[in-house]
Write a structure and sequence with these properties.
Blueprint lengths: L54 H7 L28 H7 L69 H6 L5 H30 L22 H8 L3 E8 L2 E9 L5 E4 L1 H4 L9 E5 L5 E10 L4 E6 L20 E6 L7 E15 L10 E7 L11 E3 L5 E8 L13 E5 H14 L5 E2 L2 E7 L4 E8 L4 H5 L6 E5 L2 E2 L3 H9 L6 E8 L2 E8 L1 E2 L1
Antiparallel strand pairs: 1-2, 1-4, 2-3, 3-6, 4-5, 5-6, 7-8, 7-10, 8-9, 9-12, 10-11, 11-12, 13-20, 14-15, 15-16, 16-17, 16-18, 18-19
Amino acid sequence: MSDPNSPAEGSAADGTEGAGEDHTVELSTPVELSKSDATPPRLGPRPLERPEVDPETAAVFGRPGGVEGGFAAQRNGTPQRTTLVAPPPAALASAFGRPDAATPSLQRPGDNGSSNGAAHPDPFWTEGAERDPWRDPESPVALGPPAVAGSTPAEPVRGEGARLSLRELLFGRRVEPRALAVLAAVALLVGAAGGLVGRYTAEGAAGLTDPDPMISQTVPARERPPGSVADIAARTVPAVVSFEVRVGDEGGTGSGVMIDPSGYVLTNNHVVAPAAEVTGAQIEAIFHDGTRAAAQIVGRDPKTDLAVVKVEVANPVVATFGSSAGLVVGDGVIAIGSPLGLVGTVTEGIVSALDRPVRLDGSGTDTNAVIDAIQTDAAINPGNSGGPLVDSTGAVVGINTAIRSIGMGEGGSIGLGFAIPIDDARGIAEELIRTGAVTHAEIGINARSVSDGTTDGAQVQNVQQGGAAEAAGILEGDVIVRLGGRPIAGADELVVAVRERNPGDTVDVELVREGRPLTVSVVLASD
């Protein structure tokens, strides 16, 4: 590496520095100007002042000893070879390489357009191009006209002219005749299209009022598969009986179902109760074919609102008993009876709920019943009481007993009807036919429905002296929440839970006394 403080060598003739060398250029001998030369003297470049290089810096950043160029020799002593780069692809060389020397140049000619009118062989220059100020970079600045053309004056807005009358339009020769002909042709086409649309519309509407329409053909036979409502009604309606009860000048209607070939009919107690203890009262049974026969009360049970009457009739149609235990919510059911005195009425619905405790309103009768009802949305109205509720096979699964309505007095069906399960009614009917009376289990308490927001139950109001509850240790104020495994949500549910049992049965009663749960065993008594 050369010493940076050594004097410069090989200065260029034009006063520039040698590439890659540090040196100082001294000012040349002053040039003497003649008096006739108007050009001022030109000064050479000022000497460059470079500070001395720190030896420590030179030792760190300088070239190592024995290295003259930018690349060191190979370690084995062989001279360094320069690796040539492969030539670029032809496409890149054509796009980015230098143009061929024979290709015409797009640059301005070398004489800068100042050839004193000489003809240029290059077509780049047109005639008179040398006098074009835009091509002469030394032409003076001059104020010229604007580059855009002058704006043309706006046309005055014409006012609205006078309108032509029909006479002037047709005979005034102020409209081209061909325009009138085209307008007339368009009007004719529009009129023809409207006429065709009107014709097709009229023809389509005429089919609705045609005096000789085509009527679809029908066949005498209709499909009534087994299990349809029509099939069930045809098999069950003959076993349904309508009752007319007359007590003096008053009367009522109800329904019943034939349960025995001897003429025994199962119905509701509140249907026949008005005539039970009144002298001269009459109960008349009306069958589906219009046959009438007198009926006599065999037995009544006010606590379940069931009764059995007997009709003297030969060879009656007897209904088939089903099982209410197999019902589920959503099963299809059919209610048959005489609502509002209309004999043989059939309505269809489904089972809406099961085990619904319902207290019956026995106004005017001795009925004081709480039933564990089947709830249905089949239309049930006054007069349906005592009639059968049958399933999709035609078997009786309940006895229609009550409806829920809105308002005072008798109301129509609002989709809430209740029936006594046939599993409960069958045993009671058999007992009434045998003995004329029915006994029920009794726990011996009066209760009311209560709830603390989380648990419902029946709170004991009083305990009958000598009853089953007193013997089991049940006290007033106890809240019964379960009896024999059945949850008790209120006083009505406690009644139906007890009447499901038989006198003498022992049941476990779960209750809450002063906030503490307690279970006692109760031996049910008889009423």
